Amino acid sequence: MTDLEESRKLINTIDQKLASLFEERMDAAKKIAMYKKQFGLQIFDSSREEEICSREVDYIKNPEYKNYYLEFIKDLMNVSKKYQSYLVEGCKIAYCGIEGAWANIAAKRIFPKGNLSTYSSFDQAYQSVIDGTCDFAVLPVENSFAGDVGQVFDLMHNGPLFITGMYNLKITQCLVGIKGSKLQDIKKVISHQQAIDQCTEFLHSQGYSVETTVNTAMAAREVSQLNDKSIAAIASSDAAKLYGLEIIKESINQNAQNTTRFAVFSRVLNKEIGDKADCIFQMMFTIKNTPGSLARAIKSFGDLGFNLKSLRSRPIKDIPWQYYFYVEGEGSLFSDKGEKLLSAIKKECEQVKILGHYSKEIEI
Known about the structure:
The model has no long low-confidence stretch (mean pLDDT 86). By secondary structure, the protein is α/β, with parallel strands linked by helices. The chain is globular, with a radius of gyration of 25 Å. Strand 1, helix 4 (102-110) and strand 2 form a beta-alpha-beta unit. The strands form 3 sheets. Strands 1, 2, 3, 4, 5, 11 and 16 form a 7-stranded mixed sheet that branches. It starts with a helix and ends with a strand. Helices cover 41% and strands 26% of the residues. The chain contains 12 helices and 16 strands.
């Protein structure tokens, strides 16, 4: 037998082993896909992939092979993602707005294979998950410039759903109008109130009158239907393209880092990430009416080694001068420390509600 034949025989033997290992890997990928489907998590996680690639390449001892192995492992991960996408397809995703709205853009980026369903209000989108019509809802919770989305915070406080992921979408607002429109033609601008708030400096500098609409995409659609050069909308470039409008001026929001956080809401609380120091949690609670209760509750986080990223209060509807508190922190609530934290907080609180638990935030 020649050296060539020996080498080919060896490759055939190795390929048989690779085929068996490939099946094992895809079986594991299937379990991961089912986990992601249950909790509404993205198939693609760039930071996770970078971590895997960096780790895997270190296993190769021959430096001449490292770049080739990196290419091999990336191809293998792409095959795995395709299979996971196939398994996850069919999830029904609720959002508030119409096609071209920022929520629509966020939902498509988080669930590129999902079946999107539009609702006219945050309440309806949220309720569709409660009643099982949809699997997940993608709703905005906060904008870096305009602040909290109060309606969604109230749903979080009063409703039964849980946050299984938080995603950051950079918002670039555009002034859009019908074809041929110029800055000097515009008299009135319509959009969602938050979009108007994000662009006040530009609007004031131009002296435009403003009118609010339900969302930015509806504003773009209305401008298209009115076909009036004197009326423009603040909307995304996606909405402009969708409704046949031109971008009169791009990036009119005064804050270049304008970002909206979108939460994925599910019927199931994600407890399976376990005792991870880098995971994130959200919680809401109401305080007992005794001196020092709030201070003692907040102190519990630091005493047990939890870093609080956010603390805010919001009035409780229908109960004058009563408030619930929202906290966001780093660490696992489903660990020994987490159990101690919950026990300590419950001593000072009337109600304690875990809102969310997930591994990290993702840029989309």
